[in-house]
Design a protein that fits this description.
This protein is of the alpha/beta class and 229 residues long. The chain is 35% helix and 17% strand.
Length: 229
Amino acid sequence: MSENRAAPDLPEGSWPVLHDLARWIGTWLFAPMYRLRLYNVDNVPRTGPVVLVANHSAFVDGPLLFGMFRRRAVFLVKEEMFAGAVGWPLRRIGQLAVRRDVPDRAPLLAAQRVLRGGGMVAVFPEGTRGTGAAASARNGAAWLARSTDAVIVPVVCRGTRRPDGAGRRFRPRVDVLVGEPFECNGERGRAGLAAATEQVRAALAALVAELDGLRGLTDDRSGPSAQEA
């Protein structure tokens, strides 16, 4: 029996036991480093195909989110991260290498198979780290959702990026807000894909603004409740 048939929510060649172990480690790995506050984590469906889209402002965003949800997550990760000794464990826990700025359908097709197996695929639509404001988006996430009838769940993270000119911080506060699941624009063709991509970008940008507002309201004082991690 193939690995993919044994675990349809993971890519071929991955080891489900190793993936689950890594995800379990991820649930507590960052607790000593950050003061984590999680909002609306239950918005992530427990079953069914999900394309999780997240803003990206720091290297740690992916590893932090990997262990945060109560289900397996396959991340699209830049190919450079697979160089050297790190590549083997990344592949075995089911992460997919993506070549940036180069047409490469292989990882998207592998992610498509994961979604059709009922899994969850996580994408950073901005394509690279920035300010995390979701000012732009590439069309991979929208294409995956439209081609598999997966719902999209936006997730934003604030506090992982060290401000310019700031020194090392001691246990900075990090907030993660999960938005409501939604379906992509159903119009066909390139125009439909472009509209769906803008839908993804706008949802992320709105969620960033909402989280920035929450951070300003709470700011270590009383305010909306959050799940401590």
